[in-house]
Amino acid sequence: MGNEKKFIQKEKMKSMKRKNRIYEIVFCFLIGVVSLTCVLPFIHIFSKSISKEAYVIANKVLLFPKGFSLKAYEKIFADQSILRSMFVTIIVTTAFTMIGMFLTTSAAYALSRKELKGRKVMAFMIMVTMYFAGGTIPDYLLMSNLNMLDTWWCLILPLSFSAYNFLIMRNNFSASVSESLVESAIIDGADHFRILKNIVIPLTKPILATITLFYAVGRWNAYQDALYYIKQRTDLRPLQLKLYYLIVSAQESFQAEGVATGTITNPEVLKAACVIFATLPIICIYPFAQKYFVQGVMVGAVKE
Q1: Could you tell me the pTM of the whole model?
Q2: Number of domains the chain is built from
C-alpha cells in the first residue's frame, strides 16, 4: 500500500509539472507576441529611415533596410536650428519634471495624511480635472492674459501637475509608509517636512522614479502646446515641433518639385528618421530606470 501511494503521488507530481510546463509555454508565447508588437514597429521605422527612397516608395521595406542611405539623417543635422531645438527641449523637460515632481510629491503627501481636514474634498477637486477640461481656446486666452505666449513658461507651467500622477503617488504613499512610523517620528519631534524628506521619500523611490519618467517622457513627446503658444519666437520651438515643421516642409517640397527632380527627401523616410532621432534619448535613459519603473507601477496599483 505504501509503495502504491508513493507511486500515485509521483504520478500526480509529474502531471502537475506537465501542466505547469504547458502554462509556462503558453505564457511565454503570449508575452513574446506582445513584445513583438512593441518591437517590430520600431524596427520597421528604423529600417525605413536608413533605406533608399525608391524602396520605401515601393513599400518594399519591412524589417530589414534595403539600399543603405543616411540622406534623411543628413537633412536633419543640416538644419542648424535642430541643435537649438534640442537644447530648448532638454531645458524645458528638466524644469517641467522638477516642478511637476515637487508639486505632485507635496500634494500627494499632504492629502495622504488623515489628519488633514477637507482632504477628500481637495482630492475630489483634483480628480474632476481628469474628466472635465476648459478646452484649447480658454487655455490660449489664459496664456495670452498672463503674457506667457512666446515664453519659456508657457511650455513649463500649464501641464506641470498631473492628476493621474498625483493619484498614483498618493496611493503609494498610503500603502508604502507605515502610519506607526510616521507617528513615531512626530512623537520624536519631527515636522512634516522632515518626515517627507527622511522617511517618505527614501521609502518610495520606485514610485518617484516612475512618476519622474512619466513627466519627462510626456513633456519630451509633447508639441501641441508649443504649436499653439509659440508663434513669433522660433528660437523657442522644442525638438518635436521643429521636426513637425521639417516634415511638413518636406511634404510640400516633395509634392511641388521633388517628384520631378528627385532631389527632395521623401517625407516618409524623413518622418521615420525624425521618429528615431526624437525617441533615441528616451530609449537610452529608460534602461537605467526600468527596475524602479516596474516596482513603482506594481506598488502604485495598490488601492486605499
Answers
A1: 0.73
A2: 2
